[in-house]
User: Fold these one by one.
Assistant:
Number 1:
Amino acid sequence: MSLAHAYPRWEGDVAGAFIERLVMALQRRSHHVSMIVPGDSGVGGSVIQNGVTVRRVRYAPASLEMLAYRGHMTQALKSATGMACFAALLAGQTGAAIQASTDQPANLIHAHWWVPGGVAGWLAHLVVHRPYIVTLHGTDVTLLERSRIARALASTVLRKAGAVTVVSSFLAQRVAELLQDSPARFLVQPMPLDIGRYSRLSQGGGGVVTVGRLVAQKRIGTLLEAIARLRSTGSELALRIIGDGPERRSLEYYATRLGIADATEFVGEVRPEAIPDAIGNADVFAFPAAGEGFGLAAAEALMLGVPVVASRGGGVSEFVPPEGAGRLVDSDSAGELAVAIAALVDDPQSRPRAAELGGKLRARFEPDRVAAVFEAVYDQVLRGAV
């Protein structure tokens, strides 16, 4: 049984798609996995989705079921209504996990994100005594930085878990610091990538591309400034921004102010299967986001053979190199970012090196290989070895 607050609601939905890849790989290895996830805008109940039993828990009137899938959970907790909805979601997932463990006994509960899934898994464990593990993805770690109460609750949830996994060494170190624990207690294992869609190689000539939700953390404004600097020196590099979000309008205005509106394309959100073509024959993939837990889009770009410039720190710096196939820069320095982009474009070896590195990432993040790692963790927990 697995608990999460994001899981694809329809074919091609990006919400929690990496969890679905893991679940389907586990099922290919003869594990039966059922999902317990929040309802969304009035849609609840149980369905069979790609061979997986998915139960969507209703927790509020349809107009208020907005906590999951949209990234609004932290903001919603600032209001009384949001808190009531969150409590109802937590109670609903806990109750569903208890019922599922009673009706069709599960050997183990795998909770994604320590809250609400991890808390629900812990509460269910207190009742049905099923072991549980927790996987931390990044946004839940950010919450620990903001709240002493969250740190106290998380410490209990993670201490009682049979195992805790994180998607990068960066997150393991950060969680250990926040909870005054040892990084060695957290197993680093990224989620699987959809490697089948990233088999073609970019031929170059497509300028600079970035992919991500248009929010402040992604530092798209810094990237716009870097492109403006390059254009001012005679570069003809254009920029494609794939993704949408609350900052889109202000970023479009900023591109106009910088004088690069004609060289900047805001593509908007695209379906997952269209991302490889949307990245196309990019010269460089830019990932200026600060403190990301992993950096999925950067890994996908490397699998396409596109050199990557990324911010230092965060999970992305664990696979983007400081030279050769990539460059690492200060997330707030448009100057560093511009220099790094130009260096990758001018280096004839950056593209073949990116393709070579991408091949290694493809093997490392292949879904069945990742599923085998989690299978071993499950076995150890069930034997009481973790």
Number 2:
Amino acid sequence: MNTRQMLELREHEILSPYAAFSDRSQGRDYDEEQCDIRTIYQRDRDRILHSKAFRRLKHKTQVFLAPEGDHYRTRLTHTLEVSQIARTVAKALRLNEDLTEAIALGHDLGHTPFGHAGERALNDICPGGFKHYIQSVRVVELLENHGKGLNLSKEVRDGIRNHQMSTTPSTLEGKVVRLCDKIAYIHHDTDDAIRGGIIKEEDIPGEYREILGDSLAKRLNTLIHDIIDSSEGKNDIIMSPEVESAMLKLREYMFESVYTNPKAKSQEEQAIRLVKHLYEYYMENLDQLPNEYHIVIEKLNEPPYQVVCDYIAGMTDRFAVAKYKELMIPSAWSVY
């Protein structure tokens, strides 16, 4: 018996009967020889962690565009915080931590530059629309590894595709990530908003602070404990009505006070115009796309608009700005 098989056996000894067991995975689209030391979900996690799309997250906006300061969240730090919160919950509920971590690390791989402003721009201009969770699946199924994809398990892809609250993952691990994603961004966006002087702790309505806690740490602690206490022994991931209602109302407060605040969003219109101009430029100049995207158009018979959308969605904030300057702004020249 090799290491992987021992790990799979141990899962059956310690995990909840509601967990997703590695040796019961629905597998990959393309069969591969199994690793002798890692389970299928461990391999998926490692493939995501070593992907180019994952590395690019460090230079993609979470909420605040081009903030002055080193401590504001990026799309990468958001992803890491989701992963750790979700792993805490999964461990407490005896679910599969490796599957949970893989879904969490991959859930935002398809996010655009400039956060949701970039997503709105592409959704407005692309004929097929644009949703980052659909794009995240496209990244792992097609775009990574020179058009071959990462060949991840069906459970991981299902969790990535369904991490929005409007959809339902097929595993409890996916449901954990879906809820912890919301908890993570409410928590860290509040922290960043306070750091940026947009709101103060005492500005948060007292009715939410009374239920969830009067500090960032207390609120996060309350939310995590509530999921664990409410979901223990159940074939579902839920929260108590009181805490869930307070969390959703706090989220509404964040939309009103932070996500639409002129100070936090002062450059969004510029970012939206930049993304749309890049899209229009590349649609008129397909020859300027990198070679790997021509392969997707020609060999995989993908429509050009989709591939242009893929290219722009994969850009980091600073790469998009640099490309815009290169393509749209005249540079100095000399005859000497």
Number 3:
Amino acid sequence: MSGWRRAVCLLSGGLDSSVSLACAREDGFQCYALTVDYGQRHKLELEAARRVAEALGAKKHVIVQTDLRVFGGSALTAGLEVPKHRDEAEIGSGIPVTYVPARNTIFLAYALAWAEVLESSDIFIGVNAIDYSGYPDCRPEYLEAFERLANLATRAGVERGVKFRIHAPLLRLSKAEIIGLGRRLGVDFRLTHSCYDPDPHGRACGACDACLLRRKGFAEAGLEDPIEYAK
């Protein structure tokens, strides 16, 4: 452990969180990957998170179980239809039905709890405010507010003066820039999963917002997306 700093890295198994984990490793952190099984409509991303955590050398990978289906309110946790074939203007306007109420707040709360136990002051999250689907909990002002909360609400912050930091290394990058960064850092994109509505064989639908943003990013980066899409 000598010379290493510990960081808790939120890892969904998607493209962005995988690159964020790689950034933490590049920055010299020993990475503790945290995935939340929140009752999402498919479990493929949990398997993707396991693959990515192993491939990127996470010191430990924990999957926390909670169930946001008891509240619903999202196409990812209730029987609502996932939007398909939306154009760029539609994706960039308003908050879509795939928004899961308070999801990042819940995720960051779990990460903060683990960080305090690990005596770590660093949390990584793979949000970005450029190519995103309008989620309010992906904005820089939200992350700044949670960082203030973390320093007010923990024993480490109050008694020991620990200053928690929420790292969002992808915050101001486009999807193409994220993909380029991930390639440089050795992320194997074949291991990742982004689709909101995969087919029964686990292939990405290619038409939901997450797929469209991913495909656009690879096209703009001049690279081929290595995952399989439904025909």
Number 4:
Amino acid sequence: MTAETAAPSTRFDWSTWLRRRGWTAGVWVLLLLMIVWYSVLIPKFGGFQIASISKNSLPLVYLAIGQAVIVIAGGIDLSVGAMLILSNSIAAQLMFEQPFAVTLAIAVLVILIGAVINGVVGWIITVSRVPDIVVTLATSFILSGAALLVLPSPGGGTSEGFRAMFTGSTTGSGSNFWPSLVAIAIPMTLAAWWMKNTRTGLSLYATGSSPIAAYLSGVPTRRAKIVSYAVGGGFSALAGLSALAITGSGESRAATGSLFTLRSVAAIVLGGVALTGGIGSVVGAAAAGIILFTLSPILSAMGIDPNTAQVVQGVLIVVVMMVAGIIELRRQRAG
């Protein structure tokens, strides 16, 4: 055997890469194409439009990441939207007329509250063995009611510095898009790294793929599920904080939470996360969240009636979910 034949091949295996990350890469390419398309449809495209897309998609991006973590671990959370409005309401009340340093401390507290509440929900699911969809649906009603108790009508506020941290402007509007892009990139990158490079993160994939096999292999499946819900709750709270930074006031309408929950599920499916668990990436889910937001201005720029635009968005989501289901079925048959 020669040295050439003995040496391991250093050639990049594109087929393996595409099989593992092709869908995620495709979603980001689709996002880029949609932004280019949008720039062609409108008379002027620049920093203001990029800032508008990036900052206004923040709440859905955070919800999609949180939902993706939970679904990858084999669960699903129908209360992420309710957690968003509860966190938004609490923060709006506590941050009103407070200096920047205090609002930052409150933000950390709100995220911790969201993580603890959702962690308890995950514990209830693992102990009671009641299906996730039932427990989280009931939780959504509880959280929505609590949000109304905290903030009966729109109001409250936050510091200018806190708004600038997410939107790049003390007023929530402008052409500085870098802060909102950073606000997307940092949590997304940290979540993706944690899930792919830590034992706890990898245990979520193992639990979602096959809970029984994971348990027999020594994976703490109950803890993995509780952790996934806690992380999802933290990201849902972060979504509520970003919504406060964008609008400058709190909003506790249950309808808003329900809409965000449905969109978060659509985003993870579009982002390549299998609803059966164990497959997907938060990176794809984040891109899908931006795509779902970008659909609205694109359809508006095309002159499509808002009511018709809702139908178009719904049809596109259904088609994507059907395609994802077919791909998952083929993957299971191949396995």
